[in-house]
Specification:
- By secondary structure, the chain is mainly alpha-helical.
- A two-stranded antiparallel sheet has the order 1-2.
- The chain is globular, with a radius of gyration of 19 Å.
- The protein starts with a helix and ends with a helix.
């Protein structure tokens, strides 16, 4: 029952953090391009990961992107919306950049952080239902691990993943001269990971990182920087969230590590 209490507390905390961002009625009308990308994303996920995990991954991605969208709205971006991108997850969009780095960090963090409550709730219900509904319990556990693995990867210090963006924002406040160097280093690590894993998808994400660095370097108007104390607190929130998802994804990480050793 402790797990259910923790899950309920996380749900309440998430609702409070995103209060004002839950107005789903403000979602823009779906056009043919958005629907086409959504259908292709679902089909691609099912073909690559199988029907069960493919659907679970899409649900996890939608929850993640809704976290970004609602955080955008909390910060006054009523036009915020998201799109699914085949095999690359999704992207949250607003017609204007955040005014401050604090807003930017909050928007970036809430994409993964909104997944904490569903993850813990899924694990808690899986434990409670393990005897009375074992099949449902297995599905809930799989969903919890999917949410955990997706967001744990997303929070790694690799630019332009959310973790890399948060590291860059904090570096910009704590050590401004090193911002571009740190961002470039994180992209280089992502390129190395793509080569080691022979992953075209990770390589495409790294390419997006290089383009993002170039675009932000050319931006004329820079957002208001965070205070150093705020940056340190934000980094602590990033580390805590990453650690929580790593714990949730341990079975998947362990299985992946075992398969690597067998190769």
């Amino acid at each position: 029952m402790l797990e259910l209490v923790v899950a309920a507390a996380l749900c309440i905390a998430t609702a409070k953090a995103l209060r004002g961002g839950w107005a789903l009625a403000q979602l823009p009308k779906l056009d043919s391009k958005v629907l086409f990308l959504a259908v292709i994303s679902i089909v691609a996920a099912v073909l690559v990961f199988g029907p069960v995990f493919g659907v679970l991954i899409i649900i996890a991605v939608i929850i993640h992107e809704l976290g970004h969208v609602m955080a955008y709205r909390v910060c006054g971006h009523d036009d915020a919306r998201f799109r699914l991108i085949p095999l690359l997850g999704g992207v949250a969009i607003s017609n204007r950049a955040p005014k401050t780095q604090t807003d930017d960090f909050f928007i970036t963090l809430m994409g993964p952080a909104i997944g904490l409550a569903p993850m813990v709730l899924a694990f808690a219900l899986s434990y409670v239902l393990s005897d009375v509904a074992p099949v449902v319990a297995v599905m809930l556990s799989a969903f919890g691990m999917t949410v955990a693995a997706l967001n744990a990867f997303n929070l790694l210090p690799l630019y332009p993943l959310d973790g890399g963006r948060m590291i860059r924002l904090a570096t910009s406040s704590l050590w401004p001269a090193a911002e571009l160097f740190v961002a470039g280093g994180m992209v280089a690590l992502l390129v190395l990971l793509a080569v080691v894993m022979k992953s075209l998808i990770i390589g495409l994400i790294a390419l997006m990182g290089f383009q993002s660095i170039r675009a932000e370097a050319q931006r004329r108007r820079k957002p208001q920087p965070m205070k150093k104390a705020t940056a340190l607190l934000a980094l602590a929130a990033h580390i805590f969230t990453l650690a929580a998802f790593i714990l949730g994804a341990l079975p998947i990480i362990t299985a992946w590590g075992s398969s690597i050793r067998l190769l």
